[in-house]
């Protein structure tokens, strides 16, 4: 039973950290959209219009992965304890 509690705590902290990183990335893209787009456009040779789609896809995939691999196991472990 102790291992389940420890795993639950680990998944809880992983969820919190990853949701925090997702929030920071989202806010950075909202507040500094032009500056970030200019840097990424020069680095990778991508047009600003295409970068907007890439940013949305990145955030959406990251969010789904956080829920699949962090939040859902945390909820399952909390139900078990």
TrEMBL record:
Protein name as annotated: DUF6868 domain-containing protein
Record keywords: Membrane, Transmembrane, Transmembrane helix
Top-level taxon: Bacteria
Residues spanning the membrane: 12-32, 53-76
Organism encoding this protein: Paraglaciecola polaris LMG 21857
Domain DUF6868, residue spans: 4-80
Keyword Transmembrane in record: yes
